[in-house]
Amino acid sequence: MEPYGDHSRKVVSPLDKVQVENLKIVTPATTEITRDDKVTESNFEADPSLVDHLTDLRKQLVKSAAVFLFFLIAVFSSINLWFPYITRGHQLIILGPLEVVKFYMSISTALAFGLSIPFLCHFLWQFVKPGLNEREGRFLSLYSPVMLLLFLLGVSFGYFIVNPLSYKFLVSLGAVNFNVMVSAQEYISFLLMTTMPIGILFELPIVALFLAAIGLLTAESMKKVRKWSYLAIAVGSALITPPDFVSQLIVLIPMVILYEASIYIVLYTERRNAVVN
User: What share of the chain is helix, strand, coil (3-state, %, to 5)?
Assistant: First the structure.
């Protein structure tokens, strides 16, 4: 009969005592590792707020895409109605069968995007609204219509003033020594160049007012950097307009006026806030 055959006893020999103590030492470590594993697994669980934000973002993107697709189909299907207003009666040529499709799609996409801007701004506002503080939310709710109005004003300024003047100047300049034939694709590129960027530049007063509202800009600082701002505006006007002095000057003048208007708007806002406080 084995002296250690009875395993029901807790300690049967010095060796068994050591093994039992080792088990007592190992067991807490094992339990601790298990707890760490549970903590590590919990770290990989998705944050409910992050999931909600991503879900809301997906909804807003889907709605934006749906609105843009709707206007794209509507504009493309009615292309024969608005086409004369875009070309202004200019004699355009195409260099291949695919250029017709490129021209139609380019101008339809641009018009669809312009028509979708109010809806896209609304969807963007719905997404960022919960994350804004009271001052930022009040600012965007008040000035969102003004932002849209300034953008449309800039696009209209480019379409009715900058585009026809610069187009006539450049064509007449080339007609002196060349037989000028303008392709449809080049014309639409020129049209977009003289409209969309100008619409974005016309947002300058709202951008300045927003920076002033969050404390990053003051009227005094705008006055101090006025010369450098004029230089930056001149460079920006040269980059977004056709390479002729007439177009650059036409864009530069209203941008300088808008900058000066931004200074007075920010100054008026600062004085009003000082009176209220």
Answer: 80, 0, 15
